[in-house]
């Protein structure tokens, strides 16, 4: 039986938390008379990212997708070279590998953290494997010590897809800064936004130098702007991945608010956890787990239901109550493209498939009120535990 929603407007899954300081930051950039790309504002934000996350180099880009593409170009992949990634990720992780000339090899996730499964990762390493891309899901880190150890033993590069991991930590180190390079997203749906935007971060000087060239259409314009050469010219393959100073201004204001944004999300996360504990104890759902080694940024709040049909039913019933919820990534190995072009028809990744089927994301953003969280909890209770 459908119920009348408690709130006049549906509760969205996500809401950007921009405030008035954005307008002031934008005004300042406009008044410089030069709101192009990679100017003073970008430099200031890049320095801020380096300081905040204790990393030597940060390059702002037009998206995380593009930061991943740059990271793959930096690997100089040859035809047939393989790069391992979880099947449970956004398409950009796989597209970047293809665009960099490599072959994506899909790997299982573990069902505790929904990140790369270590045993399956090791099984999939071949003579052609060049790199691994751990994806930090929902603000929870992949098991980086183990991944770095395996990569070192087998001579693999590590590119962290930290699109969802900005300001989250693994054993005290910021996600994205542990591997050879890391990619951040500032897309409107992420924690800290510039509308569209991303960054490539690395501690390696040589990678940063070459990334600057790739980002500037394959030219050494960055060296020219620093006065290191007297003209700039074409020196490598590249594309146009520089962020506009206008968007960097938006990001600067978001980074100033980062603790406020993160603590707002943490409050929502913890309220769901305590509100839904009872349903978990009754076996109706499973709650996420933040491992002791991880400081989450609370990017996503999800529940794991017992089957895909139940997940579809719950999503539908929440919608009737004015609550948005969503499933996540159709596993890439079962996508039409991978099946037709990457030969994955017979690849079996049962944990990935099971997690995909049961996972439901719930609204989480700093402005979400306690009473709204309680309403979501109450609705889930009555959907999953109908009165006798
Ligand atoms: C959002 C996301 C991306 C892509 O980020 P954009 O900035 O939109 O390009 C890549 N990987 C993961 C895991 C993501 O969640």
List the helices and strands and how they pair.
Blueprint: H1 21-31, H2 40-53, E1 57-61, H3 64-73, E2 82-86, H4 91-99, E3 103-107, H5 118-123, E4 129-132, H6 144-154, E5 157-161, E6 169-170, E7 173-174, E8 181-185, E9 198-202, H7 205-215, H8 221-225, H9 245-256, H10 258-281, E10 285-286, E11 294-295, E12 301-305, H11 308-320, H12 336-341, H13 350-358, E13 359-362, H14 370-384
Parallel strand pairs: 2-3, 2-4, 4-5, 5-8
Antiparallel strand pairs: 1-9, 6-7, 6-11, 8-9, 10-12, 12-13
Helix pairs in contact: 1-9, 2-9, 3-4, 10-14, 11-13
Bound molecules: pyridoxal-5'-phosphate.
Short description:
The chain is α/β, with parallel strands linked by helices. The protein contains 14 helices and 13 strands.
List the bound ligands. pyridoxal-5'-phosphate
Query: Which structural class do the helices and strands define?
Result: alpha/beta
Secondary-structure element string? HHEHEHEHEHEEEEEHHHHEEEHHHEH
- Number of H/I helices: 14
CATH architecture of the largest domain: 3-Layer(aba) Sandwich
Strand tally is 13
User: pLDDT under 50 segments (min length 5)?
Assistant: none
Question: Mind summarizing the main beta sheet?
Answer: 7 strands, mixed
CATH superfamily of the largest domain: Type I PLP-dependent aspartate aminotransferase-like (Major domain)
Total of domains: 2
> What's the level 1 CATH class of the largest domain?
Alpha Beta
Helix content: 40-55%
Provide the β-strand percentage band: 5-15%
* Cα-atom radius of gyration: 22 Å
In CATH, the topology of the largest domain is named Aspartate Aminotransferase, domain 2
Question: Strands of the largest sheet, in order across it?
Answer: 1-9-8-5-4-2-3
Judging from the principal axes of the Cα atoms, what is the shape? globular
N-end to C-end Cα span:
14 Å
Mean pLDDT: 96
